Amino acid sequence: MVGRTGLYALLLANAVAVTVFFVQAGFASNTLIVLGRLAGLYGALLMAFQLLLVARLPWFDRRIGMDRLTSWHRWTGFSVLWLLLAHAVFIVFGYAQSSSLDPVNQLVDLAETVEGVLRAITALAIIIVIGAVSARYARRRLAYETWHFIHLYTYVAVVLAFTHQVAAGTTFASSSVATTYWYAVWGVALASVFLGRLVLPLWRNLRHQLRVTAVVPENDDVVSVYITGRDLDRLPARAGQFFLWRFLTKDRWWQANPFSLSAAPDGRTLRLTAKRAGDGSAALRHLKVGTRVFAEGPYGAFTTLHRTRPDALLIAGGVGVTPIRALLEELHGHAVVIYRVATDQDAVLHDELRELALAKGAELHLVTGPAVPDRLAPRELARLVPDITGRDVYLCGPPPMMNAVLASLRELGVPRTQTHFERFSLAG
């Protein structure tokens, strides 16, 4: 809540500052030009805010979670697209109203005579392409690596848009205070990305020198990878978090995959457990001991940091048991664990869960069977955990199961502040 409130307050304060600078700069005589300039200013502000959302700054990530930050980044991106389109349309039609040119020729004239306009047109074209490939229909049909490569052109658009603002922005140059403000906004946004996405991961990996120490098959489809390194007690990882793992083999060094820690960090070893779901996870089984590892993270707000009650309910589905198992190891207070799988053979890490539950005085329920009827419907959850509304609930599993359980929790009256989950698929 603190992180979310902080981000909202930051955006609101900057929106007010932009409006004040806009008013101080004075209005054009043409209403369309006034609206176009205001849309461009808000679009530029949201573009800088977008960078902050994906900078992966630890303070925000631990309190909000990468999945929510990424989701906000997505919707902010579409807002930027519409604002910048409005900026272009209003400006062109506004100037066309004041001249004898039609809108197309007016656009050409602005590109030829006004410094920075051609750069702005290029930036807008890039943003339109990125918006198109980020639409749900296109996103589902593109490999992540392809989508990510196209998405990197956002930084080109950012630079072009900023230089356009410097060259042609009347609000930018209206006063020394306004100029300093805009440089500060873009400087903080770009520095955040540089520090969070490049400097911090490089520094941590140079410091910790991660390597694979063991690869242990859990069953035919699931494998655990043990990793060690230097000074792991100084790595700020917590149970429930995940890393973007990059195993530095000749055929996989370029591919990063998000996997949760499946054991609470002990300062000596990290462990991930993954189910074979694609080439990246399938290749884990063939890793050799000693393989170098480049890990970005830890990421995620799925931790005990957000607990509001002394007791907890942990609900896992399938391989979503990995962060749940790690959380059980770290949790204090009474815990109930519900593990939902199709068959007993699918219950990965069940023996470890049973031993942990016994050691910590927790209740463990293995719920098996087909998806229909729903074994985690409200009545079933209330039977297994009668005091469910008085507990923090941690949930991780396949999206259909998570959606069904979240609906059950709402029907049972579990407050949203006591419900903790992350959709890890968004992290990749």
Question: What features would you describe in this structure?
Answer:
It is built from 15 helices and eleven strands. 52% of the residues lie in helices and 15% in strands. Helix 4 packs across helix 5 and helix 6 (117-134) runs antiparallel to helix 9. The model has no long low-confidence stretch (mean pLDDT 91). With 428 residues, the protein is an alpha/beta fold. It has helices at 2-25, 31-53, 58-64, 66-97, 103-113, 117-134, 136-139, 144-151, 154-168, 176-208, 279-282, 321-330, 350-360, 378-384, 399-412, and strands at 211-217, 222-228, 242-247, 257-260, 269-275, 293-299, 312-317, 335-341, 363-368, 392-396, 419-421. The protein has a five-stranded parallel β-sheet, with helices on both faces.
Question: Quick recap of the structure?
Answer:
The protein is 52% helix and 15% strand. It is built from 15 helices and eleven strands. The chain starts with a helix and ends in a 7-residue tail after the last strand.
SSE run: HHHHHHHHHHEEEEEHEEHEHEHEHE
Low-confidence stretches: none
Strand content: 15-25%
**Percent of residues in helices:** 40-55%
Strand order across the largest sheet: 9-8-7-10-11
Q: How far is it from the N-terminal to the C-terminal residue, by CA?
A: 24 Å
Query: Radius of gyration in whole Å, from Cα?
Result: 25 Å
Judged by helices, strands and strand pairing, the structural class is alpha/beta
Biggest sheet, open or closed, and with what strands and sense?
5 strands, parallel
Q: So what's the overall shape?
A: elongated
